Amino acid sequence: MTAGHAAGADLQGAGPDIVRSALQTGEPLPGTNGFAGALDGRLTRDVLGRYPLFVDADDPDAWSPDPRFLSSPEPLPAGHVGDGSGTSHVWTLPDPSPNPDETAAVEAVAAAIAERTADVSADGLAVGFSGGVDSAILAARLDAPLYVVGFPDSHDVAAAQSAAELLDRDLTVVELDHDRLRAAIPAVARATGRTNAMDVSIALPLYLLAERVSADGYDRLALGQGADELFAGYAKVANAPEDSRVEAATVRGARREVLGSLPDQFERDVLAVRAGGAEPVAPLVHDRIVEAALALPESLLVSTDGQRKRGLRLAAQRWLPDDMAARDKKAMQYGSLVSREIDRLARQAGFKRRMDDHVTTYVQSLVE
């Protein structure tokens, strides 16, 4: 099996012994932050797909963590192993019974977060900070500078500034404008292999944030990736089964359903951050935190009054003021105003809203 990338780092994210053990036992959560790569002549990718890995549809022996090195890249599915003859499904995400003891369930989440964030080295690390509970936990737990990205009048910039004041922390604002946004679009589209409006609008702020922290001398960027999926941060999960965007009949079922989207999201986000010059760090999706989150009852995913991520918020009160732990946030593409301003750029370039998917067409025109 040949690698379509530079020599070294054949296995990302975990040592070979722990991955071999997980392959032998079938343990889906062996205590890592994910892994992917070549081991003993086979390719492997963890159950949540936290590291990207691609094979070449035209050459089954060629693979790479970067799709740009392959002529016809296809992702190795999460939880699978593969070789030149095909792939097989090895790991499935556990589906434990909910813990009926709310206090114990919250304590398990808090203990896992405390343990895993304590293991994150501050060497060369910066924190992507939006002021929401996910990134605020990282800000409180990690001794690293805080950065927020967005347009000057964006929700994320204002929220991050007020949250940084509450935490008595300095904050660097990566201020966006149309020129920076337009210039970055082709690089993001090529790095991720995606030109659709949603993916590009999500990847752009991550890329621009990574570009700035890299220029400032940091080579690792901590992000709150995965917390919304793990702890039920989406309205469509909270509103199950009435919300047509999910098929599940329960909140826990809908949470599990959206967890299935993580491998695709990690591919996009990791590739965008790496293209910006940094390596992403996602402490909140460590296996031990995943285990604790999966055991939360529905009452700790969504409260009776509709508060989402209740279990995570209660755990966060150990490190954050109560009002900060309770804060809602917007998705990065909206909170930073990147989605709105790409739409504006597209219309200024003549791609009107009456056109089908006008922003995607605009992005494709810049790449071409």
How would you describe what is shown here?
- The protein is α/β, with parallel strands linked by helices.
- The chain is 43% helix and 14% strand.
- The chain contains 16 helices and 14 strands.
- It has helices spanning 16-25, 102-118, 133-141, 155-166, 178-192, 197-215, 227-231, 235-238, 251-259, 262-275, 287-294, 310-316, 322-325, 332-335, 338-348, 358-367, and strands at 2-3, 11-12, 36-39, 42-45, 54-56, 59-64, 73-75, 80-83, 86-89, 125-128, 146-150, 171-175, 220-222, 279-281.
- The strands form 3 sheets. A 5-stranded antiparallel sheet has the order 2-3-4-8-9, covered by helices on one side. The protein has a 5-stranded parallel sheet with strand order 12-11-10-13-14, with helices on both faces.
CATH class of the largest domain: Alpha Beta
Give the count of helical stretches. 16
Please list the strands of the largest sheet in the order they lie side by side.
2-3-4-8-9
Number of strand segments = 14
Please give the domain count. Answer: 2
The CATH superfamily of the largest domain bears the name HUPs
H/E topology pattern:
EEHEEEEEEEHEHEHEHHEHHHHEHHHHHH
Question: What's the multimeric state?
Answer: single chain
Low-confidence stretches: 1-8
CATH topology descriptor of the largest domain: Rossmann fold
The helical percent reads 40-55%
Whole-number mean pLDDT? 94
Shape: globular
The CA-CA distance between the termini, in Å, is: 33 Å
Strand content: 5-15%
Compact description:
This protein has 368 residues and is α/β, with parallel strands linked by helices. The chain has helices at residues 16-25, 102-118, 133-141, 155-166, 178-192, 197-215, 227-231, 235-238, 251-259, 262-275, 287-294, 310-316, 322-325, 332-335, 338-348, 358-367, and strands spanning 2-3, 11-12, 36-39, 42-45, 54-56, 59-64, 73-75, 80-83, 86-89, 125-128, 146-150, 171-175, 220-222, 279-281.
